[in-house]
Each structure stands twice: as structure tokens, then as C-alpha cells.
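Hello again, I could really use a second opinion on something today. I've been staring at a protein lately and its backbone has me curious. Can you walk me through what the C-alpha cells say about the fold? Take your time with it, there's no hurry, and the full record follows here:
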Amino acid sequence: SLYGGPAGFGLATENDVPMAAKAHILGQAFLGVQMQCAECHDHPFDHWSQPDFWGYAAFFAQLEQRSEGRRQMLQRLVDLDRGEVTLPDSKETIAPKYPGGRRADAAEGGSRRLQLSIWMASRDNPYLPRAAVNRAWAQLFGRGFVEPVDDMSPQNPPSHPQLLDELAAYFARTGFDLKNLYRTLANTKAYQLSSGASSTAGAEYPTDEHAHLFAAMNVKSLRAEQVYDSLERFLAPASPSAPSSPIGLADGRRFQFITQLRMPTRNARDFERGAAQALMLMNGAETNQMTSAAQGRFLTALTAPWFDNRQRVETLFLATLSRFPTEAEYAAANGVLADVATDDIRPVLGDILWALINSAEFTLNH
């Protein structure tokens, strides 16, 4: 494959991530297991042995990155028919072995990468359904049955083992259909709970106990991708003859925004914003364009004469925070709008929009 697609991971990491690292990164992502301790010795707290780890790593031993095309600018990931793994500090050759299961059989045909891919999505793989369900639950609820989501070891048991087993079996039975899984979880009563919570301490938002038991919806911080897509979909400027830029990894502006806004946190319930993230929302190109009196199509629509100031303020709140303003918030916004002529109101609306985008509530999901 050239660049994107399933080979993208290998192309992106071939030069700077060794084979062993690829193995444990993919193990964490797709299997929810952490085998890296077994790279040098048997895992001290889990059942993984050193041969287990290198048997899994052997699936990545026959990959090579090649440069092709004009000026060697195109990269291709190629499967070879050579390349073996030996156990460190020994001459013992380790054959490919599926995690926790049987050794790969060369008679099955296909490259080692293909064999691993087939096993990953087969019923012989007991790890993928549980790992996928746990990640999907964590994404929707702000916390997985197992935390962190990539450490599903015996020493880190799930909070609701029976429910995890039932959902994992359902996910496998329905053909590993992620769309169906998300639809099922979104239709549960648990997902539709309010983020408001009551407790003996009178807490308005979920406590650690609520989060652990899913007794109320967790307040979650939006991912960088969600922040950008929210801005692009509802507030992006566009000329009458040109649609909004496509959303995808090929969109360089989106990729740059996500890279700068993303925080290195693994907990969606933690609100982490540093100076770089704050400046991105305050002064970034996207915010400037979306709140510009000259370019913002959203602001242009709000200057229509059939809108009164209350409707304008309510529309701004609904588009950014998905709720109506409180009376105090409306009074504050109307205070700066009341004495402005309709022809001059667009910059003021842009200032209100800027304030809402830069509020903590804008980047929270609850």
C-alpha cells in the first residue's frame, strides 16, 4: 500500500520504531495486553513468557519499507519471504505464534502479516472482542470497564466483568460490527443518564463512585478531533461557490490543528489544557476565521433582520454549547448588543462567539 490504509502504521514507524515496539504497540491497541515486559524476560506479573513475546513479534520480522517512484518519494511496505527472529542472547529461532494461542502454520498460506490479520478478526482471538468493547465503552462513558484500557491483565480486573463478557460475546456474534456496537451502547439507559448527580455530599457532578459504577454520565473532555470537527461543521466560513474543506487525515489544516491541540492524557475525564492549547483556540487561524465579521457565514446569517437579539444569543449558545443561555448569560450578552445598530452588529456577535469557543464548557461533553 502507498501511504494510507492498513499499512500506514508500518510506513509511519518503520524508520524509528523497532520490530519489538511494533509488536507491543499493536498488542496494546488491538488486544488490550501489555507484553513489553516479556521482551527481555518472563513477565513477572502476567502469564506472558519471553518466547511468547518474540513469537508474536516474529509476525513483523518479514516487513521491509521501500522507496519508489519519482525521486524515491513514494513509500511501500513489502512482505518478504525471509527474516527470522531469534531469542535474545541465544541462537534459538522463534516461529510466529499468536498471543496466548497456537503457532502460525506456514501451510495456511499468505504473508505473516496476512496471517496475523486473519487471526486478529477471528473467533480464535479471545482478546480483540474484550479490548474493542472496553475501548468503545471508555470512549462513550469516559471510563472503561478496565482502566487504563490497554492493560487488561489479570491483575487489573474489570469493574463489571459479567457485562464486559456479555458485550464481548455479542460483538463477536454480530461479526465485529463497530457501528452496531456503538449504536447498541448509545441506546442503553446508562448512556442516556444525565451528568447531574446527587450524593450524600451534595455533589452536582459525578464523584469517583459515580464514575466507577456509571451511576451518572461522566463529564468528558472533547478530543482534539471532536473540537475541530465541531468548529468545521457548524462555524466554518465558506464562499457561496465552494463547499467546506473535506474532513479527513488528508486535510492538512485539520491535521495541524489536532497536532497542536492534542494533550498527552489517557483519561477523557481529565480537563487538561496548557498554554499551547489555549493559544490555539484564542488566536488560531480557525478561530479567527470563524469569528471574523468579514468571513464568518454563521455570523452573516445572524444579522438577518428577522432575528431579534434574544434569538441571536440563543442561536450562538445552541451552536457552541448545545444549550440555551441562562437569564444571566443572556443579560450579559444583550448588554453589549442592545445599543449596536444592525449594520454594525456582526463584529459584536463575533466577540460573543469567540468568548463561547474559548469557554471551558465548549471543550466538555456532558
About this structure: The first helix runs from residue 8 to 13.
